[in-house]
Design a protein that fits this description.
single chain, 313 residues, alpha+beta, Alpha-Beta Plaits, Beta-Lactamase, 3 domains, 11 helices, 8 strands, 37% helix, 20% strand, elongated
């Protein structure tokens, strides 16, 4: 029965005086559990039966829930954040009247992780891994696709985790996703952006006095490599890190260039990258872990072409 039908019915009952509200007969409608005002009206038989009507939000100046939980909150306040409501209940003077942007401060014991994950290359797999990471309260600040193969992808997640003690649990959580496994999980001081890093390297190379020395130094840093070297005519002309001898580098260069797939960067050794610098020579980069991936092989080939163009200026 609607609100206005109840009003009309009570009005007609009041005029006819035929209904005795004695608590036993309510002429066919039930109001549910009654508060003291309702019981008093039912037993007294008075003319004011408005308290028998169902309570509808808006009948009073304040909502019942606001009156109970947020005593200082009044109509007209625009609430967009539950946290603000809680603060308003505790301190009415702290309630904001304009929207505020809150920035999350990193916890003192938070750790930055770079996590390489093998996962099935199927719809929804990436979301499942992200959900597992988020279940521990970790914040994913970046995802990079390193390689895609036959129904398998290798992605690198940049993650901020609140506690270092949760790292092992995080790795296990990711492994719970069907077909997913963690290739590597390392702690880093800060996250790099491969696109910006590549541009920074090009800028440094363009203004370098010793192009070869700058190239091996920037390559080592950008790729997290153990060593980098430039080989020209069978001789090492620039090196960073503990690179193999010139004879070994020459053999590696010859072996990789003999395979069209390796030379084009479609595939290659896990621990070695080779990129030609035009007809002049080759740039070789070594890293024990993690394995080099397709995106990195293509990136080094691009650096070799840029270095060749700069040498030709």
């Amino acid at each position: 029965m609607g609100r206005y039908e109840l009003l009309d019915r009570i009005d007609r009952v009041g005029r006819s005086g035929a209904l005795h509200l004695d608590g036993a007969h309510l002429d066919g409608f039930e109001t549910g559990e009654r508060d003291p005002r309702q019981r008093q009206a039912i037993c007294s038989g008075g003319d004011d039966h408005s308290c028998l009507l169902p309570r509808v939000p808006g009948d009073d100046d304040e909502e019942p829930m606001q009156r109970e939980h947020v005593p200082h909150l009044r109509r007209g306040h625009h609430v967009t954040d539950v946290g603000w409501v809680e603060r308003a209940a505790e301190d009415p003077d702290a309630f904001p009247h304009s929207r505020t942007v809150h920035h999350m401060e990193p916890l003192d014991d938070a750790v930055r992780l770079r996590i390489r994950v093998w996962l099935p290359d199927r719809p929804g797999a990436l979301g499942l891994v992200a959900s597992r990471i988020g279940s521990l309260g970790a914040d994913i600040v970046g995802i990079e696709v390193l390689e895609r193969g036959d129904r398998v992808a290798v992605d690198e997640f940049s993650v901020v985790l609140s506690q270092a003690s949760l790292v092992d649990l995080l790795v296990r959580e990711i492994g719970e996703v069907d077909g997913a496994s963690v290739e590597q999980c390392v702690t880093v001081a800060q996250f790099g952006d491969p696109r910006l890093d590549a541009l920074d390297t090009v800028e440094a190379l363009a203004g370098a006095g010793d192009l070869d020395a700058m190239l091996v130094a920037k390559t080592c840093g950008e790729f997290g490599a153990d060593w980098a070297a430039i080989l020209v005519g069978g001789e090492i002309v620039a090196v960073s890190g503990a690179a193999p001898s010139a004879d070994v580098l020459a053999a590696l260069d010859a072996g990789t260039s003999a395979s069209p797939l390796v030379a084009s960067g479609q595939t290659g050794p896990d621990d070695l990258l080779v990129a030609p610098i035009g007809e002049r020579g080759a740039l070789l980069v070594g890293r024990a872990t993690p394995p080099f991936r397709f995106r990195e092989r293509q990136q080094l080939l691009a650096l070799g072409r840029i270095a060749d163009a700069l040498h030709a200026r």
